[in-house]
Specification:
Strand content: 15-25%
Radius of gyration: 24 Å
Low-confidence stretches: none
Shape: globular
Helix content: 25-40%
Mean pLDDT: 95
Number of strands: 27
């Protein structure tokens, strides 16, 4: 039986485990990346391990999230990360150099390599043929130290593309179409491979848009073949030697196959407040728009920006609309300036923002109260924009421009002829904002610079054999990590200060939760299906750990969040019978006995002392995960000699 692309890469990097879906495999990791919102904690964790220098082929620390410096906190964190990178062997991408995924695609990504990053959109690298996965910061720290990365061996899905995209229909519309088909949990436990004749018509930036948005499906990752299109991109980046061909075997077997005809697609739009709430743009024709944001790791490539500039050239945006444009990297911005496209963008009335995540992470440019904001981003979770009642829609750059010019949701196919976009044969290469590490000889003399906002990693405790605790919070389905640990300009600067951060935990759901959790001492949280979807931020586990949460019981979990909970020493448990969720009420007194025996058997009994109910729970842990929980988290497990 033949292998898929992902199976070939996994086979080449397999340290232990069997490549059968559902079993745990340990992978050797070639490259890692971090960004500043998750990086400070990741490097504190790496420092705790006592490893003097990273052991990967390449590790890069990016500054792209917390670039709004309204106080000392972000600047201090940046200095800390820069000094850690210099001392411990990482490259450091300075603030303003660009969004981690865009820069990594341009300068570092290599087909056939494994990459994990402390950002859930790391699968962007799949557009260049990498096995690229989002992970918690602690998993990234372990990989930097030479440890394996553990995943449950995924199923394999295939999406066959036929035909060719029509003008004004884009890779973003392909992403929204697959979200419409599968939903935000339809890719859980799977790797999605894109193939078919239609992929030959898609450039690497377009492929990267699709793999980036694959994160919203809950997929482990998404991947394209490495072919002549990949080769041309790498050569244009001056990295032709990094090319290798990668394709699946003709007799590769897939668990699911989906067919999409590119020629039949229309411009699509995701409505508030979920990336899979997808309809056609034409169905919302005439909806008034207050704000438009173009950029993010999904749609900030040179190709996207040249299309935006061409559509805006000689035109002016509606006075009632505020438009921001964020190029994805310094390379993109410089090339826009050199060819005159930047002037066309500015002349339209757009505001050009820094080459950073910016509005996508709620870092500035929030919409007006109740405002409709069309964004070329990947997430439209409630409150993520920084405006609690903001109505955020996800669209392509073309649809975004159409709305900015007309003041309402407009099918971009009504704009007339699509200007012809000619991509350069060579990109402008300037790596001066990527700082190399100190040499092995110089590293011991490098001083680590810490600011007063950097606090220690929260302490965890070994898992007791019996829990008798209150149900301190009950929430519903599709709870995101933005619900658990919000982002935004007011909160992100405290990512390295867990005690301060804790007061915002679950603020979107219940502002009283932090105080009630502290008063309880130890507690349990209950949630619905797809709990923990969205960002890879391990703070959504570390802050509940700090607040005394010992277990989370749900109908189902998102992949990365399960790993983060276990790494933090919190038990993720699921209902054996999902309808038992309705039997529990916030405030109930709960008991779980014989936890160690339950871990071994795969089942525990939850006793609700308030109602008298006995509820069976599933706990599907590997031997390694059991050891981590019993030790009190991954850091303590590693300290005890675990690998």
């Amino acid at each position: 039986m033949g292998l898929t692309i992902a199976q070939k890469i996994i086979r080449e990097h397999l340290i232990s485990g069997e490549m059968t879906p559902g079993s745990e495999v340990a992978l050797r990791i070639d490259q890692t990346l971090t960004q500043d919102a998750t990086g400070t904690m990741a490097y504190l964790e790496f420092e705790t391990m006592g490893v003097p220098r990273v052991k990967t082929e390449l590790s890069v620390a990016y500054i792209d999230h917390n670039t709004l410096q309204s106080g000392f906190e972000n600047a201090d964190d940046h200095r800390f990360i820069q000094s850690m990178a210099k001392k411990h062997g990482l490259y450091f991408s300075r603030p303003g150099n660009g969004i981690c995924h865009q820069v990594h695609l341009e300068r570092f990504g290599k087909p056939g390599k494994t990459l994990i990053g402390s950002d859930s959109h790391t699968p962007t690298g799949g557009g260049i043929g990498m096995l690229a996965m989002g992970a918690g910061g602690l998993d990234v720290a372990v990989a930097m130290g030479g440890g394996a990365y553990y995943i449950t061996m995924p199923k394999m899905y295939k999406v066959n593309l036929t035909g060719r995209l029509r003008p004004f229909v884009t890779a973003k519309d392909v992403s929204l179409e697959i979200l419409r088909i599968l939903s935000v949990k339809g890719g859980v436990g799977a790797i999605i491979e894109w193939g078919g004749e239609g992929i030959r018509t898609l450039s690497v930036p377009e492929r990267a848009t699709i793999t980036n948005m694959g994160t919203e499906l809950g997929a482990t990752t998404s991947i394209f073949p490495s072919d002549e299109v990949t080769k041309a991109f790498l050569e244009a980046e001056g990295r032709g030697e990094d090319f290798i061909e990668l394709k699946s075997d003709p007799d590769a077997v897939y668990d699911k196959i989906i067919e999409i005809n590119l020629s039949e697609l229309k411009p699509m739009i995701a409505c508030p407040h979920s990336p899979d709430n997808v309809v056609t743009v034409e169905s919302l024709k005439g909806t008034k728009v207050d704000q438009v944001c173009i950029g993010s790791c999904t749609n900030s490539s040179l190709y996207d920006m040249l299309k935006v500039a061409a559509l805006l050239k000689g035109k002016t945006i509606k006075p009632e609309v505020s438009l921001s444009v964020s190029p994805g990297s310094k390379q993109v911005l410089a090339m826009l300036a050199d060819c005159g496209a930047l002037s066309d963008i500015l002349a339209s009335g757009a505001r050009v923002l820094e080459c950073a995540c910016g509005p996508c992470i709620g870092m500035g440019f929030s919409p007006n109260s109740g405002g409709v904001s069309l964004r070329t981003f990947n997430r439209n979770f409630e409150g993520r924009s920084g405006t609690a009642d903001g109505q955020v829609y996800l669209v392509s750059p073309e649809t975004a421009v159409a709305a900015a010019l007309t003041g309402e949701i407009t099918d971009p196919m009504l704009l007339g002829d699509m200007p012809e976009i000619t991509m350069p044969e060579m990109f402008k290469i300037d790596d001066s904002a990527i700082l190399p590490p100190a040499s092995v000889e110089e590293a011991p003399d490098v001083e680590i610079l810490r600011g007063p906002n950097i606090k220690p990693f929260p302490d965890s405790r070994p898992m007791d054999d019996c829990l008798q605790v209150p149900l301190v919070l009950k929430v519903g389905d599709n709870i995101t990590t933005d619900h658990i640990m919000p982002a935004g300009a007011k909160i992100l600067p405290y990512r390295s200060n867990i005690p301060h951060l804790s007061q915002y935990c679950f603020g979107v759901c219940d502002t009283t939760f932090p105080q009630r959790a502290k008063e309880a001492g130890q507690s349990i949280i209950v949630g619905g299906s797809n709990y923990g979807q969205g960002s890879s931020r391990e703070h959504a586990a570390l802050v509940p750990l700090y607040l005394g949460v010992r277990a989370v019981i749900t109908k189902s979990f998102a992949r990365i969040h399960v790993a983060n909970l276990i790494n933090a020493g919190i038990m993720p448990l699921t209902f054996k019978n999902p309808e038992d969720y309705d039997k529990l009420s916030q405030g109930d007194d709960l008991v779980i006995e014989n936890i160690y025996a339950g871990m071994d058997s795969g089942e525990m009994i939850l006793q609700d002392k308030t109602s008298g109910e006995e509820i069976p729970l599933i706990c599907s842990f590997t031997d390694r995960q059991k050891a981590i929980l019993k030790a009190g988290g991954l850091l303590k497990y590693v300290g005890l000699g675990g690998k």
